Amino acid sequence: MPGIVIVGVQWGDEGKGKATDLLGDRTDWVVKFNGGNNAGHTVVIGDEKYALHLLPSGILSPGVHAVIGNGVVVDLEVLFYELEALKARGLDTSRLRISANAHVITQYHRTLDKVTERFLGKRMIGTTGRGIGPTYADKINRVGIRVQDLFDENILRQKVEGALDQKNHLLVKVFNRRAITVDEVVEDLLSYVERLRPLVADTGLLLNDALDAGQVVVFEGGQATMLDVDHGTYPFVTSSSATAGGASTGSGVGPNRLDRIVGIVKAYTTRVGSGPFPTELFDEQGEWLRTRGFEFGTTTGRPRRVGWYDAPVTRYATRINGITDLVLTKLDILTGLEQIPVCVAYDVDGERFDEVPVNQSDFHHATPILEYFPGWSQDISGARTFEDLPLEAQDYVLALEAMSGTRISVIGVGPARDAVIVRHDLVD
């Protein structure tokens, strides 16, 4: 049975949670392998809507084991808030396990994130201010706090002291903020220990054992390809590996165990935060797309920037991730448009680029070369086979498939759990 990786193709918010949920009844394990509570999944089950920020969306499926992998940074306050909220709604969260090697977001990480972003002014990146970047920076600088450190108070105190020796100078002398004491940080972290202890495990071992036993493991990526720290629109990116390669490094499972790479892509494009976005719309059509698609951040509530489908970005993501299947979401949002523009290439100072430019400056100055496709007016939310779609919608999907470098296996036609068309099975 397969290891399936689910990654975003664009700049996030493509509907990855719904894709994971679609596999739910055949999935044994769902792993979050990167990011933290700086992004969210919205999953609709019947009349219930669930907004998850840190927990893997598989926690909503009965019988599924949910894992927060070593590549995730964990805000313990958010973790237990989400768990209690799900328990209050009658959901079983007992199958959650957290890697002992995952790094912990502390008070000083959140403070530094916020003051640094304000300090950047016009050059701000557009972070959520939740301490994600500073925590990953500490991880790379080898001064981070890991989940396992909370179970040895002496080690924890030593590590916090070492981190604050430098950070308090920065907070006080550069940002004119008060110093943070070691005691307040240690006391806060230790307050979670007893609740945390039964959740912590060698998750890499658990996942490899599960694959050896023939169980289906889904690796759920946060953010998306164009926000990946290596392959995205740097520096306007997240601080983790959001591509398929991150599934191995962020979970402790070798790449030869990954059988399917599923890319989630919207029928148009959105992003949150600063950075280049060639197809972005600033007119009434953009506002129409934003309102109709309810394009507001699950975690922040910020209005998302919106634009037309970008075929070069999808081809790039397909190549970078080795995508085997695409899940096209929110096709229903385009209903009612007479014509649907698609970006097929870019113009950069008179030169045509059929692929994403390697030079960030070129990408920043790129304008889209658009091709127009006939729209449709029929309600497609009840379609359950490809043939149920209007011919114009079928032609649009087939055109995107031809441009994207891999097959479109699933099409989302509405927010409900069952509002999908399955053209190719994602498991078999």
Textual characterization of the structure:
- This protein has 428 residues and is an alpha/beta fold.
- It folds into two domains: 312 residues, Alpha-Beta Complex (Adenylosuccinate Synthetase, Chain A, domain 3); 94 residues, Orthogonal Bundle (Adenylosuccinate Synthetase, subunit A, domain 2), CATH 1.10.300.
- The strands form five sheets. The chain has a ten-stranded mixed β-sheet, sandwiched between helices. Strands 14, 16, 17 and 18 form a four-stranded mixed β-sheet that branches. Strands 3-4 form a two-stranded antiparallel ribbon.
- β3 and β4 form a beta hairpin.
- α3 packs across α4 and α5 packs across α6.
- The longest helix is centred in the middle third of the chain and has 22 residues.
- It starts with a strand and ends in a 6-residue tail after the last strand.
- The relative contact order is 0.16.
Please summarize what this structure is.
The protein is of the alpha/beta class.
> Radius of gyration over alpha carbons?
22 Å
What is the name of the CATH superfamily of the largest domain?
Answer: Adenylosuccinate Synthetase, subunit A, domain 3
Overall structural class, as computed from helix and strand content, comes to: alpha/beta
Helix fraction by DSSP (H/I, runs of at least 4):
25-40%
List the total number of helices. 13
Low-confidence residue ranges = none
Quick one: overall form? globular
CATH architecture of the largest domain: Alpha-Beta Complex
| Head-to-tail CA distance between termini | 8 Å
Here the CATH topology of the largest domain equals Adenylosuccinate Synthetase, Chain A, domain 3
Give the overall pLDDT as a whole number. Answer: 92
Strand order of the largest sheet: 9-7-5-2-10-1-11-15-19-20
The major β-sheet equals:
10 strands, mixed
What's the CATH C level of the largest domain? Alpha Beta
Give the beta-strand count: 20
User: How many structurally independent domains?
Assistant: 2
Q: Strand fraction band?
A: 15-25%
